[in-house]
Model the fold of this input.
Amino acid sequence: MRRLSSRTMPGQDTMEPLERLLNLVGLLLEAPTPLTFEQIRETLEAYQGDNLDSVKRKFERDKDMLRAYGIPLEMTGTDVWDVEQGYTIRKERYYLPDIAFTPEEITALYLAAQSGSATTDAISGVRKLIYGVDGGVLTGSAGGPLAMESDTDQDRLMAAAAAASDRHAVRFGYRTAQGATSERTIDAFGVVFRSGRWYLVGHDRERDAIRAFRLSRVTSDLTDVGSGADPPEGFAAIEHVESAPWDAAGLPVAHVAFTPEAAVLAEGNITGATRERARDDGWIVLAVPAADPDTLGPLILQYGPEAEVLDPPALRDDVIARLEAVTRG
Amino acid sequence: MLVVVPYLIRHPGTTLDEAATVFAIPIPQLRRDLEQLFLAGLPPYGPGDLIDVDIDEDGGIWIAMADHFARPLRLTRQEALAVYVRATELAATPGVPVAPALNAALAKLRDALGAEALGEAAGIAGAEPGTPPEHLDTVRAASGSHERLRIAYVAQSTGERTERVVDPEAVFASAGHWYAAVWDVEVDDERLLRIDRIASVEPAGERFAPRGLRGAGRPLYTPSDRDVDVRVRLHPAARWVAEYYLARDVAEGPDGSLEVTLPTATTRWIARLFLRLGTDAEVLEPPGLREEIEAEARATLERYAAASA
Done:
């Protein structure tokens, strides 16, 4: 074993910031009562300069830096009479509570933190969680990070998530799918990820109704406008995000025949489409959820002569009528 | 350091290499920080009060006298939310093998961090992920083991099925779809494939050397010099086209319509897109595209006439 370096008594000018900060954290964490600045000065050589102003400034900078790291440095009365104010780091607010993650769970979180558009908060957060597992589990995790990308601005997503968990209201500009732009004020109830997109769900104050807003259509930063309303009893944000067809059990189904090539495309493009049978001529019949016939007809038309609606007859007639409108020009 | 130290105490003898990898800190910096740690301690800072740090000949790190740093720091609110949001997103993406572990981890995070860090975390939710593309696992495994693949692929733009030999370098999800960034061996160029459009796949029986193709974060459409510029007017009900496809030179009209240019190598998919859009959109350039749309409509109508005959 080799010692790192010969231990020297550090002078105040040569003392490095990390050492100073580690000592300050250790001191406040272990002190049984809050310590005044004077008491800290007496104990920590780093703050023992003659120039009180510059020492104070250094201490203020250190405090800010520690708080930025998330260290809960608090100011509080040193005794029950609050005569003097002192600094403390409460252990129960400093230490992470014990969480019994399995190695699989930690690996999954580690992958998740690295999966999206790089957010340093997610990565630094997960690093605090991994102390209990062997790092080899992480570096050896097969396949590397699961890459994801999102059409949502990450700062706006985090602002929406924070507002929803604080029950705050936010104001932002929003453009609907039809292109109408307006300013919205929303009591944030939840954020929901569905089919590759993030939505903010909440109470729209002007419209007095619960609405879901696709975050990629938010046209401004979100401004926190203070406390918001509580959601109604039994509220589930997810129920307010346009339901995907595969949730639509029991809804009508249309049968559409596709060429084999178009069938591959349709299975990927039309959510909930399932392969039913292959016809003798090689065409593939797909069962397609037909919750909304007004949008399904146009959707099938995008496959041109490589798709044919078999039933229901109303949908078939709708498609024919739309085609005739084009050929009559 | 306050994050690294608890790990090093919990795992005595962790090497510099391993710690540098797990925490993404360059080794020289890690070494410098450990030297700093070695000078820190608790009052009265006598030799017995300072943190003991040794690095052995194999680079193993041993820390003693640092019980107050043996447990990690809490997550900040931002960190807790970010981890929670990321994990929710991944767990709600189809075809993610770690989804069950993620859901279990999310429940533990909710219990342990509680309202202070996460607030009403129940409001952050993911939908049921749905069914992943049939060949996702095969392509992902091949990407991990650098296995060359022979695939049949249906391109949306041409509607044609082609046999290709590809090196799948990166697999990623974007806005609800899975993609593979591949090297197409026969055309000797990079291609981006949507995995749900792979009709069949089999190993080609060779390994490839990765060229470092970019996965997530790349543009989903690569313009080429053979592109034609199609200029269209989208009425408000068709504005989604400008979001869904690559559009440039966007100009907004007073009625909320948009004029946009859609660069494309082939026009047939745009002609068919116009069958879908009906009166919600108009072709401005090139004029020949209007005839193409009508021809597609006639061909499609014939399908219905023939079938009912």
